[in-house]
Each structure stands twice: as C-alpha cells, then as structure tokens.
Amino acid sequence: MTVFDHEHVLPEPADTEALGESLAAQLEAGDLVLLSGPLGAGKTAMTRGIARGLGVTGTVTSPTFVIAREHRPGPGGAGVPLVHVDAYRLGSSGIAVTDELDDLDLDTDLTAAVVVVEWGEGVAERLSSSHVLVRLDRRPDDVRVATVRRMSPT
Predict the structure, then answer these.
(1) Degrees to nearest 5, angle at CA 145 with 139 and 146
(2) Distance, C-alpha 141 to centroid of its chain
(3) What pLDDT, on a 0 to 100 scale, did the predictor assign at position 86?
(4) Which residues contact 19 (CB under 8 A, 6 or more apart)?
(5) Which residue, 51, 57, 59, 83, is CA-closest to 70?
(6) pLDDT at 72
(7) Rounded to an integer, what distance in angstroms lies between the CA atom of residue 100 and that of residue 72?
(8) Are residues 142 and 40 in contact, defined by beta-carbon separation less than 8 angstroms?
(9) 3-state secondary structure string, the chain?
C-alpha cells in the first residue's frame, strides 16, 4: 500500500513512526525527504520510523545542534544509509542558508543514502530534481496529521 497522496491521522507518536517505517519501504538510495511542520509536529518521530524501516544503526534524535547525523546500514537492513539533517538553525549564524547547506556536502550523500531534512521545505528542494515532501501538523487535541507527496519538477 502506498503512503502517498492522502491524509494520515496519527493519534500517537508510535503512529507517526509507523508511517515513517511504511514510507521507508518505498524509498531508495538517492531519495530526498523533506519534513515540514511546526515544533512538536513529529518530524523526529517520522525520521525514527524511516530509520527503523531502513534498518540503520544508531539512535535517532534531533540533530538540531550538530546539524547532520549519518546512520549506517545495520545487519539485515535495506543496506541504505540514512543522513538526518535539521535545517532549523541554518542561517542563524549570519551565513546564507544556501551556503551552509552547501557546506554539508549533501549532494554527495544523495547518490548513496536516503537524506531526510527536518525543516527542509523552502530550504533544501534545490538539492534534487525531485523529493518527497512530508507535511506534518499538530491539531489542538495533540493528534498529528501528515500528508506525503512525491514532488517532481513541473
């Protein structure tokens, strides 16, 4: 079953992770995934699910202060590394966001890994001619809602 092009209601963080795991089954090396949504919407939970689905090693936590983390393939996993980036702080040092993004050298990772960028919408699209956009929102009742779309040049 595809996860693309419909709304997913995610009552618990485990549901967000499960959606990420289902999404991972449809990803391959070279895919760029941009996560969009406010604080607390579930971007890191989604990435944990993607990591679990890819079978990578290491604990997935928000890379806010280190900007990017690489998770190597684990035994029995999909054999594809995960590069997890948090673009939230990019541009805060006075350096242009595009320059900081270029400094991360993510275009090299895009050929051999799945690259997930939290806060990536409006920032990281230029890294690839196509990408997966996951928009997450948090309703007042604390339920998350996600839409997942493959975005290609028009």
Answers:
(1) 145
(2) 24
(3) 83
(4) 3, 8, 10, 46, 49, 146, 148
(5) 83
(6) 87
(7) 23
(8) no
(9) CCCCCCEEEECCHHHHHHHHHHHHCCCCCCCEEEEECCCCCCHHHHHHHHHHHHCECCCCCCCCCCCEEEECECCCCCCCCEEEEECCCCCCCCCCHHHHHHHCCHHHHCCCCEEEEECCCCCCHHHCCCEEEEEEEECCCCCEEEEEEEECCC
CA-CA distances (angstroms) from residue 1 to 4, 5, 22, 26, 48? 9, 12, 9, 10, 20
Of 64, 69, 58, 62, nearest to 46 by C-alpha is: 62
Q: In what order do the strands lie in the sheet with 82-86?
A: 7-10, 144-151, 131-138, 32-36, 114-118, 82-86, 68-71
Burial of 7 (0-12, 13-18, 19+ CB in 10 A): exposed
Model pLDDT, residue 97: 46
Structure tokens at 118: 């939290």
Q: Report the distance separating Cα 54 and Cα 136, nearest Å.
A: 21
For tokens 């895009």, the residue is 110
Q: Which two tokens stand for residue 83?
A: 């590069």
What tens digit of pLDDT does each residue of 93-129 get? 444 445 555 555 555 567 889 999 988 888 778 778 8
